């Protein structure tokens, strides 16, 4: 569950204003997740763009782009890419890679974009972290209205049933001499991750929280948003989705 990077955080047991202003914008978030699989991410982008048969120089929005690893690679394939994320620190880092066809901006995914895109990608379980469930539907509608007439969107979400069946309740992950004590559990239809660690004599505690959305939940929301679900895949090789076996829930829609 290394990808669950959503929801309110606390520091020294004091509540922060909200998750957008805390965990994403700390250096510790990026330290903990520094070893993500870039090769796997690139393979996914190759397979996805090939499947969608995007035109040369298609305009792509990488929604919730983080530090822009997918955006940078998509741009290297020749696409005109915009990376958008709510984290100002992440966008600041990503902006170092900007060029004529690669741009980054701070953006709330619940808002309709100023531009229209040929493809919008929401990757690596960057959905389902709002306090208000209605914001999930708002986000889907915003994605729909930000697409061109013939545009496609993709949401790459965890497969909740697979994740829960394989949940590791507790572990310690040591990165850059910091011992991250991690606890995972399911509560109130959400998957939680509690992260505790100490650095320079100071103790930290953060909580990640993502809604346990299944395919049936997405289908219901998409129907309400008047979105057409085109295809469903279960991994980054775009193989079929199996409810209890697939690691991912990848949905293509327009």
The coarse overall form would be: globular
- Kindly provide the radius of gyration, computed on alpha-carbon positions and rounded to a whole number of angstroms: 18 Å
Order of helices and strands: EEHHEHEHEEHEHEEEEHEE
Give the overall average pLDDT: 90
Question: What fraction strand?
Answer: 25-35%
- The CATH topology of the largest domain corresponds to Rossmann fold
CATH class of the largest domain: Alpha Beta
Strand order of the largest sheet: 5-4-3-6-7-13-12
Low-confidence stretches: 1-17
**How many domains make up the 3D coordinates?**
2
Strands, count: 13
The count of helical stretches stands at 7
Helix share bin = 25-40%
| End-to-end separation | 28 Å
**Level-2 CATH architecture of the largest domain:** 3-Layer(aba) Sandwich
CATH superfamily of the largest domain: Vaccinia Virus protein VP39
Biggest sheet features: 7 strands, mixed
Provide structural commentary.
The chain has 254 residues and is α/β, with parallel strands linked by helices. The chain folds into two domains: 10-32 and 162-211; 38-159 and 214-253, Rossmann fold, CATH 3.40.50.150. Helix content is 25%, strand content 33%. A seven-stranded mixed sheet has the order 5-4-3-6-7-13-12, sandwiched between helices. Helix 2 (38-52) crosses helix 3. The protein is globular and about 55 Å long.
Summarize the structure.
This protein is of the alpha/beta class and 254 residues long. It contains seven helices and 13 strands.
Write the layout of secondary structure elements.
Blueprint: E1 10-11, E2 14-15, H1 27-32, H2 38-52, E3 59-63, H3 69-76, E4 80-85, H4 88-94, E5 102-106, E6 117-122, H5 134-145, E7 147-158, H6 160-165, E8 170-175, E9 178-187, E10 190-199, E11 202-211, H7 215-224, E12 229-233, E13 248-253
Parallel strand pairs: 3-4, 3-6, 4-5, 6-7
Antiparallel strand pairs: 1-2, 7-13, 8-9, 9-10, 10-11, 12-13
Helix pairs in contact: 2-3
């Amino acid at each position: 569950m290394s990808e669950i990077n959503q929801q309110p955080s606390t520091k020294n047991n004091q509540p922060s204003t909200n998750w957008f202003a805390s965990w994403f914008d700390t250096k510790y978030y990026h330290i903990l997740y520094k070893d993500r699989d870039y090769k796997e991410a690139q393979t996914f982008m190759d397979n996805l763009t090939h499947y969608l048969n995007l035109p040369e120089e298609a305009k792509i929005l990488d929604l919730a782009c983080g530090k822009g690893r997918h955006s940078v690679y998509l741009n290297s394939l020749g696409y005109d890419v915009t990376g958008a994320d709510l984290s100002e620190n992440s966008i600041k880092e990503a902006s170092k890679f900007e060029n004529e066809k690669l741009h980054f901006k701070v953006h709330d995914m619940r808002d309709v974009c100023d531009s229209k895109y040929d493809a919008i990608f929401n990757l690596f379980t960057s959905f389902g972290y709002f306090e208000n469930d209605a914001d999930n539907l708002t986000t889907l509608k915003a994605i729909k209205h930000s697409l061109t007439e013939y545009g496609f969107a993709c949401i790459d979400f965890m497969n909740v049933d697979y994740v829960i069946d394989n949940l590791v309740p507790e572990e310690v992950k040591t990165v850059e001499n910091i011992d991250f004590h991690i606890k995972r559990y399911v509560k109130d239809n959400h998957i939680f991750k509690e992260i505790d660690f100490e650095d320079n004599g100071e103790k930290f505690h953060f909580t990640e929280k993502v809604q346990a959305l299944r395919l049936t939940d997405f289908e219901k929301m998409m129907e309400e948003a008047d979105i057409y679900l085109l295809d469903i895949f279960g991994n980054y090789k775009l193989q079929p989705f199996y409810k209890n076996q697939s690691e991912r829930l990848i949905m293509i829609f327009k």
